[in-house]
Predict the structure.
Amino acid sequence: MKIAVIGSTGVVGKVMLYLLESRNFPLTNLIPVASQNSVGKKIIFKNKEYDIVSINDAVEMKPDIALFSAGGSTSLEWAPKFAEVGTRVIDNSSAWRMDSSKKLVVSEVNSEVLTNDDYIIANPNCSTMQMLVVLAPLHEKFKIKRLVISTYQSVSGTGKTAIDQLNSERNNLSCEKVYPYSIDQNLLPHCDVFEKDGYTKEENKLINETRKILNDYSIQITSTAVRVPIEICHGETVNIEFKDKFELKEVYSILRSTPGLIVEDEPQDNLYPMPLNAANKDEVFVGRIRRDFSIENGLNLWIVADNLRKGAATNTIQIAEKLIEMGLVRC
C-alpha cells in the first residue's frame, strides 16, 4: 500500500501524517510530496526517515492513494495525472467540489456514493463539512426547507501565514499580512474573496456544497462567514426551517446517535461546544439546541469542530479507509 501526501509540509499535510500514524492506516510505503524548495529534505514517519519527493516523481511511483492538500491549481493540474496511472485521489481543495462528474463526500453522510469509477474524490470545505455531519440526519427525518448560516472561522483556515500574522500581531512584531487588516483584537466579515453577487467565495461554498452533498437543490440557503482571532476550530450558528414538524426530543435522539457527533448541551451547567475543547479532536460538537419560535418548524444550533482535523485531514483519511473497506483499494 503506497500512500502519497501532496503538501506534506503544510498545515493540513502535517495533520494528515499524524493521523495516518495514529490511526494505524495500513500503508507500507509513504510518499511525502512538497514544493520544489522542500524536495530532498527528510521527514520522520513511524520512526522511519522518508525523503520528500517532487510531485512528478510521485506520479511515476504510482501510489494507491494520493491525499492532496496543496491548493486548487496544483489539484487541477496533477490530480488527473495521478488518476491516469490508477491512483485514487482525495482532494482537499475547492478544485473539484462542484464538478458534476466528481463525488463530494463527507464520510459519515454520503460515502456510499463512491464507486469503482471514482478516481478523483472531493473533500468539502471545512465549514460545510462539520455542518453536514449535523444537518444530514436531521434533513433525512424532517426535510430542510431553509438555512441561515453564520460562521466564526479560525485563521488556520487561511493557512500558516495567517497563523503567523495573528501571533505576530499579538506580540507587536512585524510580519507578512495575509488579511487586509489586523486580525488580532478584530473580526473580519471577509473569508476568501468577494464575488460579483456580494457574497464571499466561502459563503457560496456553504450554499452550493450543502445542496450537492444532500442532493437537494430546493433548499434555500443564505450565509455570512466571519474570520475570528483564534488559531484552530470553526464555530457556526445554523438556523433551520424544516418542512415537517419536529419534537426537540427527536432532534436530541437523532444527534446523539449520529456517528462522529458529540452533543454538548447543558446550558444550565455552562456546557456547550467551544473551540477550546474541540481542538485536536476528530468529532463534531453541537449544542445550544433550541426551537426558533419566530417561525414554524424552526431550530437553532451551535456547531464547533477542529477545521484541520474533521474539517480537512480526518475526513480525507476516513474516505481513504472507506475505499479500503469497500474493496476499491486493495491492502
